Amino acid sequence: MSQHDKVIARLKKKQHKWLVTGAAGFIGSNLVEKLLSLGQHVVALDNLSTGFEANISEALTSAKKINNQAEQNFEFIKGDIRDIKTCIRICTGVEFILHQAALGSVPRSLEDPIATNESNVQGFLNMLNAARKEKTNKFVYASSSSVYGDHPDLPKVEEKTGSLLSPYAVSKYTNELYANVFYKNYGYASVGLRYFNIFGKRQNPRGAYAGVIPKWIVKMKNSEQIDINGDGETTRDFCYIENVLQANLLACFSNQLDATGNIFNIANNDRTSLNKLSRMISKRLNNHIENLKIPEPNYREERLGDIKDSQANITKAEKLLGYSPTHNISRGLDHTIEWYVDSSY
Questions:
Q1: Buried b (16+ CB within 10 A) or exposed e, 259-287
Q2: How far is the C-alpha of 43 from the C-alpha of 46, rounded, in Å?
Q3: How far apart are CA 60 and CA 327, in angstroms?
Q4: Pairing of strands 17-21, 96-99
Q5: How far apart are CA 276 and CA 257, in angstroms?
Q6: What are the structural domains of the chain?
Q7: Would you call 9 exposed, middle or buried from its count of C-beta atoms within 10 A (0-12, 13-18, 19+)?
Q8: Is the dihedral of CA 208, 213, 215, 220 positive or negative?
Q9: What is the pLDDT along the chain (345 residues), one digit of tens a residue?
Q10: CA–CA distance, 339 with 345 (Å, rounded to integer)
Q11: What is residue 101's three-state secondary structure?
Q12: Spatial distance between the Cα atoms of 143 and 284, rounded to a whole number of angstroms
């Protein structure tokens, strides 16, 4: 039995009280759905600035198909992590915190670094301090592969980072520094997860800061031309949402002492070019939609703040968390495209 299977079995036997911040977002709503389906009690926080109430509704609907007590075990609070009083109030009585709330996107941070800092640094500190004061069991937070900056080594190893390339990267690295200081000075248990290009159902395909996979799926589905930054040979370690859900649960229950206060890459240890990604999406959509006409991509200038290649070494997460990704990009795209084909996008 894998470590993940053991955690799932444990959660099915005992209910805990969880807090998920950024719960109306893509990753947050998937975490809410997973926890509720396992019979857990979930408090969800979101200010709905980038998240959607529809994501919460869908998460509840899906969870109720597995656990009919899901709605009774769920509480949604509209609030902002930038407000200290809100942070203290929502942490009361909570055992585990999965902190996903943030202003995402490198381009967004370049356009508005102040807003990025307010949410991602001050908001994070508010939550971390409130969690410490309320003595919650574990604080698991979302970091980012952007903290590797311009470091040339591949695959990326947690201990080697380069010069940061965006305010977003600065904010996520600052989170890691604060978490480490809180662990050293207060002994407060936290775990940081460096996400690498997460994708899956309920990821917003619209707007200037949409992720590449949902944006491309919806554009191709509607026979619209996609844009590729640079020559298309930029590579990323795309990671399906199920792997992220696994990592968050494992981080809460790891019995390895070295895991607490540590940071882990969450990805597949793989690389896919944008050109290959485009072909993979196109092929799958053509299998779902008859007579679909997809225009050739439009190539344009590379995006400011982006790195050329990214790939994660996941050995540390495997050893200390028991992390074992179940979905590679191919399997993840199969599930993701099925969802978007059936969606109203």
A1: bbbbbbbbbbbbbbbbbebbebbbebbee
A2: 10
A3: 23
A4: parallel
A5: 40
A6: 3-197+239-269+306-326 (3.40.50.720)
A7: exposed
A8: positive
A9: 899 999 999 999 999 999 999 999 999 999 999 999 999 999 999 999 999 999 999 999 999 999 999 999 999 999 999 999 999 999 999 999 999 999 988 889 999 999 999 999 999 999 999 999 999 999 999 999 999 999 999 999 999 999 999 999 999 999 999 999 999 999 999 999 999 999 999 999 987 777 999 999 999 999 999 999 999 999 999 999 999 999 999 999 998 878 889 999 999 999 999 999 999 999 999 999 999 999 999 999 887 767 789 999 999 999 999 999 999 999 999 999 999 999 888
A10: 10
A11: coil
A12: 31
Residue at 233: amino acid letter = E
Question: Which neighbouring-strand residues pair with 138?
Answer: 96
Q: Which residue has the tokens 């590579």?
A: 235
Catalytic residues: 168
Distance CA 305, CA 164 (A): 9
The closest alpha carbon to 109, from 27, 152, 47, 164, belongs to 164
Q: For residues 278 and 235, what is the distance between their CA atoms, to the nearest angstrom?
A: 12
67 neighbors 39 (Cβ within 8 angstroms): yes
